[in-house]
Design a protein that fits this description.
Blueprint: H1 9-21, H2 25-37, H3 45-57, H4 62-74, E1 82-85, E2 88-91
Antiparallel strand pairs: 1-2
Helix pairs in contact: 1-2, 2-3, 2-4, 3-4
Length: about 90
């Protein structure tokens, strides 16, 4: 976080989403976190899981923590859990 700069989660979300759209795994993870926490966007667990899944597919292991938190902790709106089988993901 910058010092002396006002936090603006909506702008941060836009930049992370741009990074995610360019294939950046950390950007995908952070978009998921922002959907998970409702920072700069309306909280949406389904979208959070989608971005965490994409981040995991691109090697961002931090996304696994939030995915498990949703599946085990709240389970809210997650549908079925994504399971990795070899190099692909599928719903269980």
């Amino acid at each position: 976080m910058g010092r002396g700069v006002k936090r603006d989660f909506e702008i941060a979300f836009r930049y992370y989403q741009k990074a995610a759209n360019l294939g950046d795994s950390y950007g995908m993870h952070m978009v998921g976190v922002m959907y998970y926490d409702g920072l700069g966007v309306r909280r949406n667990y389904k979208r959070a899981v989608d971005y965490f899944r994409r981040a995991l597919e691109h090697g961002e292991t931090q996304a696994l923590y939030f995915t498990w938190a949703l599946v085990i902790g709240t389970g809210s709106g997650c549908g079925r859990m994504w399971i990795k089988h070899g190099s692909t993901w599928r719903r269980e």
